[in-house]
Write a structure and sequence with these properties.
- 4 copies of one chain form a homotetramer.
- In chain A, α1 (about 10-25) crosses α15.
- Chain A contains 15 helices and 14 strands.
- The two termini of chain A are about 35 Å apart.
- In chain A, α5 (about 135-145) links the parallel β5 (about 120-125) and β6.
- The first copy, chain A, is an alpha/beta fold and about 375 residues long.
- In chain A, the strands form 2 sheets. In chain A, strands 3-2-1-4-5-6-7 form a 7-stranded parallel sheet, with helices on both faces.
- Chain A has helices at about 10-25, 50-55, 75-95, 110-115, 135-145, 155-160, 175-185, 195-200, 225-240, 255-270, 280-290, 300-305, 305-310, 335-350, 365-375; strands at about 5-10, 30-40, 60-65, 100, 120-125, 150, 170, 200, 210-215, 245, 275, 295, 315, 330.
- The first copy, chain A, folds into 2 domains: about 5-175 and about 360-375, Glycogen Phosphorylase B (Rossmann fold, 3-Layer(aba) Sandwich); about 180-360, Rossmann fold (3-Layer(aba) Sandwich).
- The interface between A and B is large, with 54 and 54 residues.
């Protein structure tokens, strides 16, 4: 019998991370995909991921607006609550056999609560990882609500089991985001210039010459210092003199601070060799990465996809603390000088060896198979 | 400096479980109590706990209506979501230093999410216990969102730590519900007759003669069989011929099934020696227990308070599976004959020896002291 | 081109009132029916209208749980808000060409706000009538949000136009509830005994002998006196000695008071010739009315359907104040003696002449035709 | 006895419109002000009115986040629903004797529904006016929910009464926004330069030379053409060559379109003599108006405050259609040439004669007196 698999996509990064699995679910003879698009994935301000999803050919079962404005912890909590309220109606109407939630953004908890309270088996992609702050709490709480754990790495599997989950419910699938990276890297033949399609504002950057990719998100529990932190990175990149492609932050507590920092820099450095982008299609972003000299900031892309791609990464601050790292990553604090020194070192070192730590490029089909064949149950206890 | 402690009470049992801690918090020179009453604790149908709270002399900071009708898994999920939405506004206005959530009812997750997303340190009372089904998931997910763990038993402490919490954040306090039981038992001098104050419907029961207390809740993930299950218990109690004081179930998925079973029984057995009650004040319920020959059903009271009180308990079905038990408890399945036999055995065996497994009667002050002195932080990671 | 017509049914009475129009919409070649069932229409406690709807063969597009428990003015307001929140998502997914809202219950405002804020043309059935209290405010506020007015009577049409609506947008259709009454009356051949199918509790009533039908709802703005009011009616019916079929009230502020009154009466008058029913299918209720000696209480059925049926009606209190009346209605206050005297007078007077004031039995097709052909616009101003 | 007056401020313009009444309520011996700040009044993106409110010395009783992101009709409807849900809790906790709602923005309906459903008398400031589209529907629907009508003009009073409100409940108070304008105009001694305090981006404008003030909001029901409409105005102002102070639009369906238009213009006309501002304190905005040669766009300020101030106004498009006008206003369509011609004519004509049509500068105290002395009731019917 065909299983109805409801996947809830709430943001740009969760779409990138799940896309190859969506393709595999849709292609699987025993699965029916019910794709729900919610939260910031629907919003202009965050690059309207929904347009990309439609462009990629997926049918959207429901659209659910849940982001309550404020960009502060109160509005984040309210957004999570509204998400539960809305997704419960969605699931009641779609009647899925299994719900899939992705990673650890604050809105993913809404999916987890709605599904588990409604006695719908819940599959969690990318549990068991270690980072920091609220993401960490959310990720592990979702693990405790989930019935099927589709984790990226052996370390993640071990942690999920140590938290008391049944080993039989934990599967190392690798991360589907790496599938996309593998595909893109294999297909690339020449440098990718994002300004042609996406515009962006700031300097013209030649993608055939060495350039940095910078992506720095505010850290939720430190949202007041978000501006200081982005200021350090801006200063450091400025100091290296290496051209950079820079991305605006996700919606999150603190993103106003980060955005203010970027705007202030732009007003005082109109001629800096930096170009600012709102958002790229996931594949285009990967093209940009494949061609880059290094990635700078605190995005998980640097840790995950870049492990496979061998792109050198300068990871700043606490946001990715505790995640398993391949050799491509060096860590620094929010210190202008330390950051600029690390960037120069990494760029000089050149491309790293590929590492399958977060995936080998075949995670999507593996996830689809597990969704089609794993026993689906909602009964569980602590395994100890 | 005084710490503002916000305690959210959402149901009758959570009030009973936290009452002695509320008294101690209010009396503590370094604490200020902010008591929020929400969900079924505000509703007539569930005995209007709020009236009892006011009668006990507590000032109520806010009242929050969150129960969405339906008594099915969808409406439970929506209730949880609405709770987050509302409590976020409440916390934003009250600005507590620490939020306290109790046990594992589905609405307690709302408190946990609102507080943790708002970067307010979260203390969880009664984590780490093992029972079954959705309660189990909720309880451990709350553990992963909590910063301070005030657990009842050594076994609970061990499990919380094994789930990856910092040992320094885990404190064995015993359960404050036992404080109340201890107080009531010490003060009792004669049999308590609930019909005088609470009425109830059905037979007249003489509290000076042996009687049973029966309390059976539907099990969330089995809500369709709730009626069959209560039918077995009704038949078994009927067969023993021992008079019984019987309680209507809590609001929960399946409570309609349980209520239907009780109503059907009543229509066909008008002369049965059973009296049905909607709800008693916690102290009166404990008086009733202290005087009883045995407690029957699946209430946690049988496991916890009755361990200290030495009241024999017949625990039916899976609802309390995995909880640590003292010698007073015997477990049976939802089988009419097995239940009636267990009741007769237990009643013949007489009162058991008191056991401090779930508390020694001084948990409330211990919890207040920890809320006043423990380091309050929202930063945590897996301890492994 | 086919128009998608979304009808939102939120309660038992609104289903009865719109049923013949639903049949006509479904049968209309230019219309596609999108039926949304929400609020108390989904709940067991209020007779689960949804089951009747399915039994009548309608496909349900979405189910939306919106009732927040409390049965007080605060929870009613919150229910209205939750309804807007949910129905906006529903309309966003269904994309109707026109939304139909019915009458004036507090939840109908949710439909009106969601549709009008979303720029979807809104048709209002049964606007322009005059009754009292919050219903009155809600009804006229919905008129000001509506684009197409499908009113029951000439008086209603005049009032809607006086409130500033374009005369061209106001159509006298009669009330579709009368269609059903006409159909049922035409088909009846023998007395209808509701106890066979519906059970009910209380005395056995012979439907071949004269009996009363009693239906009394709490009045929203007087919810504290709901119990006193039902007590007067209970006493009056008791005094007449005429057997009665009595109905439990709708969910509404005050319904707990009404229910308490009924329960208290039952406990003290076990032998009274009254049988209590939770709810009947609309057609069965009409059968019961057609065979009755009189209807007593404050239901609008007495004013509307009974005008056409010629059933004598004793209307109590302010709930129907201001509605146009045919000769079948006599009004009395909440006074036990006045009520019993009015009942006896009416019953002696016998059946009244039919009056088409609220409809001639063909409203449903008239409404469907208007929904198919009327200009649909959302642009309007005060007509003066 | 002191009456508790709860005023809900949801946006920048509603604060300006009510400020002098807030001062008078706070100063009134028989009134206690409960000020609730909600919706866009809390958000950075819309100039954080809440900061201004605090700076003006008002104590804020509660802050309520209700804006759901999307800036489309669906998210606007959901925002209205969330507002009702939240404000019901707020009113339940504050227990006001009367609630005041202002004008006709979509969120003001939330205040009206929550208060009227909770049986709290509702006072509406600025009802009875005629404009267009959804604002018009909302305004008149609020009138039907309101118990006390505090209108600005004789025409508004007449319309409210014609809609069926009791004449005794309708009071012509003038508009409190004019109070502020009167105060500011009386105190001004020299040209006001907003760039000193507010920065803004674009050209340097000399406030001692003739300049325009431009404020153009998207029209809700035409949100797709918002960009075209702002383009016409940008072109027209460009053509006149007169320097301009230009304001970003309010949050509303379509504001993204308006903002896109402005950003595109700026990129292509870096040297245009226009300076763009996000928001000014109400008093500073009035200072800017008092010193201006004319106001251009579709803001109600042009119709109301500028009538009293005698500032010439070019009103564009349908947004203010139907409002009573003093001699200062000329109307034009969204046509670049027509707009530029009208601007040049108006500027040449110079300052107009003051007109008290919308107020004489003493509305605030008049409103406070009425709130203190008017009979407060929730009972009403159509007056005909």
């Amino acid at each position: 019998m065909t299983r109805k698999v409801c996947v809830v996509v709430t943001a740009r990064p969760s779409y990138s991370r799940i896309r190859s699995a969506l393709v595999a679910i849709e292609a699987h003879p025993d699965l029916e995909l019910q794709l729900v698009v919610a939260a910031s994935a629907l919003l202009d301000r965050y690059g309207q991921v929904v347009t990309q999803i439609e462009h990629d050919g997926f049918a959207i079962a429901e659209r659910v607006y849940t982001i309550i404005e404020g960009e502060n912890p109160t509005s984040m909590a309210k957004t999570a609550g509204l998400g539960v309220l809305e997704l419960a109606t969605t699931f009641d109407n779609l009647r899925p056999d299994v719900v899939v939630t992705i990673a650890d953004r604050y809105e993913t908890m809404s999916t987890a609560i709605a599904a588990s309270y409604m006695n719908i088996p819940l599959a969690h992609v990318q549990g068991g990882e270690v980072s920091g702050s609220i993401d960490e709490k959310v990720r592990h709480a979702i693990t405790k609500l989930s019935d099927l754990h589709l984790v990226a790495t052996p370390g993640a599997a071990e942690r999920v089991i140590r938290m008391g989950e049944y080993p039989s419910s934990v599967h190392i699938t690798g991360c589907p985001s790496v599938d996309l990276a593998a595909e893109v890297a294999a297909a690339m033949t020449e440098p990718f210039d994002p300004s042609l399609e996406y515009g962006g504002v700031g300097a013209d950057i030649n993608p055939a010459r060495p350039y940095l990719v910078v992506m720095q998100h505010p850290v939720t529990t430190e949202h007041e210092v978000a501006k200081d932190q982005v200021d350090a990175t801006l200063g450091a990149v400025h100091d290296t003199g290496i051209p950079a492609m820079w991305f605006w932050p996700n919606v999150d507590a603190g993103s106003d601070g980060t955005s203010r920092g970027i705007r202030a820099y732009r007003e005082h450095h109109e001629d800096a060799p930096i170009r600012f982008f709102k958002n790229l299609a996931p594949t285009d972003f990967l093209r940009l990465l494949v061609g880059s000299a290094a990635i700078v900031g605190n995005s998980s892309v640097a840790i995950r996809e870049c492990a496979y791609l061998g792109v050198p990464a300068v990871n700043i601050g606490s946001r990715q603390a505790g995640r398993e790292r391949a050799v491509n990553v060096v860590d620094v604090d929010h210190d202008r000088d330390a950051i600029s020194k690390a960037i120069l070192d990494r760029v000089q070192g050149g491309r790293c060896a590929p590492d399958p730590l977060y995936g080998d490029g075949a995670s999507g089909p593996r996830i689809a198979d597990l969704l089609a064949t794993a026993e689906l149950t909602i009964e569980k206890r602590l395994a100890y």
